[in-house]
Amino acid sequence: MIFSGFIFDVEGTLIDCGPQTLSSLQDTLPTPYETLQLYSGLDGDETLSIVAPQLDPQEREQLKQSDGKRYEKFYLPNVKPFPGVRDLFQAIKSDGGFIALATDCKDPQLEHYLRLLAVEI
Prior knowledge:
Helix content: 40-55%
Radius of gyration: 16 Å
Oligomer: single chain
């Protein structure tokens, strides 16, 4: 039996949210956008450990929470899926394939992303 499954990352792969994520973090932690862009793709704690090493773990967590609220309020409404995602998923499903999503994002972001994708997983 051949397994026909595909695993997709959500943020930055299916949903075009990289610029919004970086802009939100730049608003939260005044750091040049270009610097933050170097660490795009790392999780928030890793990024903060690199760009703000003076912060202790509790301060990093508070900053991540603040950034998450800012992102949800100001940036999340403006993200869009990359073109062709829905067609790709429909083609995979129509050929009998399975789709799984790999992400560390949580609701309400994940719920919003799934609505934007408008696909059945």
